Structures are given as C-alpha cells and as structure tokens.
Amino acid sequence: NEDTAVVINPETDPVFVARKGYYRASTIDALRPQPKAPMVLIAAEHTAQIGSAQSHEVFSKAEENELLFQDVDLGQADDGLERAAIDILSCTTTMEVGIDIGALTGVSLRNMPPARSNYQQRAGRAGRRGNAVATVTAFGSADSHDEHYFSNPDLMIRGDVDDPKLTLDNRDIVRRHVTAYLLQRYHQIRLPAINPEDQPHLFAVLGSVTDFRDPKKLLNRVDFERWLRDSEAGLKTDIAGWLPEELTSADRQSILELLVEETLKPIDDAIEYVPASQEVQDVAATIAQPAEGGTASSPELPDEVGEERPGREATADNLLDRLLYKGVLPRYAFPTDVAAFHVFDRDRSTRFRPAFRYTPSQGLPVTLSQYAPGKEVWIGNKLWTSGAIYSTLQSDRYKAWESRRFYY
Fold first, then answer.
1. Which of 45, 65, 89, 214 has the most neighbouring CB atoms within 10 Å?
2. What is the 3-state secondary structure (H, E, C) of the chain?
3. Which pLDDT does position 308 carry in this prediction?
4. Which of 344, 356, 353 is nearest to 387 (CA)?
5. How many CA atoms lie within 13 A of 40 on its CB side?
6. Spatial contact of 174 and 244, defined as CB atoms under 8 Å apart
C-alpha cells in the first residue's frame, strides 16, 4: 500500500542492518574510495571423500591439505605454482574418530551432532597441543533435533556419556571371524618364513586371487580345502572355545557342523572359483551344443580347459582386498558398505591398468543418489559429472553387461 509505505535508509535502519548488513558489508567496503583490504581465508577438504594417495603420489589429498594447514612447505605443485597455506579445513565426521593434527585452536560444527558423545569427540579435536584456550561453535539447522539442542545446549555439552555396546550374538559377523581365523591358521602352517622386507605391502600378505585359484601354487584353494577337512576335528574344538557365549546354541551348532562348507562357499563366490572337473564339463557342453543358427561342427573352438574367460579373468588384485570387498572377512571401518567414485587420470591410465586422480567413497545408501550417472560431484574444488557405473573388478563389469542388470 503506497499510503502506508515507509522509506528506510538501508545503512542506518537497525532492522534492515541486522537482517541484511552482513551480506552487504563486503560490497559497500569495495565501493568506498579507499576500500579496506579484503581478508582472504583459504579453505580445503580434510576428508576420506577425496580419496587415497595414488601410486605416483607421496601424500593423499587429505594428507596434503593437513600439512598445508600446519604451514608445512610442500614445494611446488604439478603446475609449477607454490602451494598456498590453508587456513580452514572442511571436515567430515572422519575427524571424530581421533585424528590429531595439532595446533588446532577452533572447531565449528555445521549442525548439532547426534549425541553428546559425538559432540565431545568433535569438539575435543581443538586445544590438544598445549593451547589453554580453544573455541568451539555449533550451528543449528531447521530440523527438530538441532532446534532442541540449540534451545537446550546443556543437554549436548555436559553430562555423562552412554557406554558403547558391542553386539556379540550376530551369526554373520561371527561367521566372518571364523573364516578369518581359519585363513590365518592355514597360512601360519603352510607359509614358509618370509623376510618382511620382501613383502612390505600389508594387503598383499594373502597373495593374489589368481594364485589362490591355481592348484600348483604353494597357497591355493584346493590345498586349503584339503587342510580344512584333514584338520576339521581339531579346528572345531579350537573354535568352540572362543565363540561368544551370547550366540544362540542353534547358531553355535550350525557354525561348527557346517565349518568347512560355510568357509569355502563365500570364498569360492568371491574369487569365482570353478573346480577343474566343472571346467571339463563346461567345455564338453560347449562342444556338444550347436551354435545358434549353426551346427555342432562349427569351426569356432571352445576355450581350452583352464583358460581365463571374461568374468574369471587373471586379475592382479590381492586376495585380501577381494575377500574384504565381497564381505567374506570382517571389516572394522565405518560405514560397512561403501562405493567409490572414480575420477580417471587420463595421462597415466591405459586400457589394462587404470589410474585415478581421485577415488572418494560414500556409504552405499548415499552413493545410490549422489554418485548416480548424471549427478554432479564436487571433489578437490572442481565439479565432476558422473558418467557411468564402474567397478575396478573387470568381472563385475562383464557380468553386469552380460545380464543387462538394472540399477535403481
């Protein structure tokens, strides 16, 4: 209504200044005859989401940002420019698990943590190296959880913390530990003494998937089954001595009775193991089965027995990596199910050996939406667009195409 309109001065009106002044201040300062020098703050990520170090790198991006935050001179970057020191680290909840980067005097939480224990862990990152004063701020968003603790901060910042609980009656988790125990016992007995310097890579200690499928190797799947069956009675006695008491008697009995079968099946599925007798049957069926539109005398010859075919290719990946990836062995990190987003390094990649610039990962529920083809993902201050679903295991890619799987 023009009759009741009131003209205000945006520079002096207290209500307008309180609501909008902060956002206008930098523009107003820049328009003055002698503008104030802007205050520059450089922010960077410190999170597992920007991936681990690649083979040609000394530090991962997160480690590099951590060192720059501590004013460590890392020299020139790949583009020849000096790396600038970092003032602010933008962190995910990975910082909560006890990372100590030192000389950290302030923590700002962008929302209210789930519980008091989470708040204490996150706030405790500051003031750890002799700094008597540390500043911790927390912002509340619009949801009911944040509103509740923003209005009642004492409930978040002080009081007793609930004791953590460990569930010991989960059969699947117990079964994975049994598998890990049996693999360890097998390697202790069969593996000869090796100089640690000859095998410095922790995740290669179990050897490769290809070697484990080869019955001619020292450690292999056929010999593992033979050892399990020969030692079954003693192994059952040993395992029965450390199975959790919280496990039901039915689960305990089934684990012991099916010790060999339940150990071999998930391993076979993970490494795509096919017994030699089955391979001979596959070849015989291929010879006897006429090709579509042709006859049994087709000039195309079947694969040789033992020949690597798509879906069972000779990969160089480590057995331990594969068993962890397939959920055969227990995993101790969180979240338990993760999927990676691969940004390829085209300068270093080849058809047979891909190299990656970034390999961030997220929990599977988040991945299904954030990493889906067509989605945009910010990594390392750049915006990337997801182009396709990808797996580092060639067999996964082949089987997905072969069965025309739908992802949703």
1. 65
2. CCCCCCCCCCCCCHHHHHHHHHHHHHHHHHHCCCCCCCCCCCEEEECHHHCCCCCCCCCCHHHHHHHHHCCCCCCECCCCCECCCCCEEEECHHHHHCCCCCCCCEEEECCCCCCHHHHHHHHCCCCCCCCCCCEEEECCCCCHHHHHHHHCCHHHHCCCCCCCCCCCCCHHHHHHHHHHHHHHHHHHHHCCCCCHHHCCCHHHCCCEHHHHHCCCCCCCHHHHHHHHHHCHHHHHHHHHCCCCCCCCHHHHHHHHHCHHHHHHHHHHHHHCCCCHHHHHHHHHHHHHCCCCCCCCCCCCCCCCCCCCCCCCCCCCCEHHHHHHHCCCCCCCCCCCCEEECCEECCCCCCCCCCCEEECCEEEHHHHHHHCCCCCEEEECCEEEECCCCCCCCHHHHHHHHHCCCCCC
3. 36
4. 344
5. 5
6. yes
Q: What is the pLDDT of residue 235?
A: 96
Q: What is the pTM of this model?
A: 0.52
Task: State how far the Cα of 68 lies from the Cα of 60, in Å rounded to an integer.
Answer: 12
Query: Token pair for residue 55?
Result: 């083979």
Q: What angle do CA 259, 263, 269 make, to 5 degrees?
A: 150
Predicted local confidence at residue 266, as pLDDT: 95
Segments in the chain below pLDDT 70 = 1-2, 48-59, 94, 97-99, 102, 129-132, 196-203, 277-316, 332-337, 405-408
Residue 79: predicted pLDDT: 73
Place of tokens 């097998």: 186
Q: CA-CA distance, 126 to 122, in Å (whole number)?
A: 8
Task: Give the pLDDT confidence of 274-315 residue by residue, as tens digits.
Answer: 887 665 555 455 445 544 444 443 333 333 333 333 333 333
pLDDT score of 299: 37
- Burial (CB count within 10 angstroms: exposed 0-12, middle 13-18, buried 19+), residue 59: middle
Q: Give the pLDDT score at 401.
A: 78
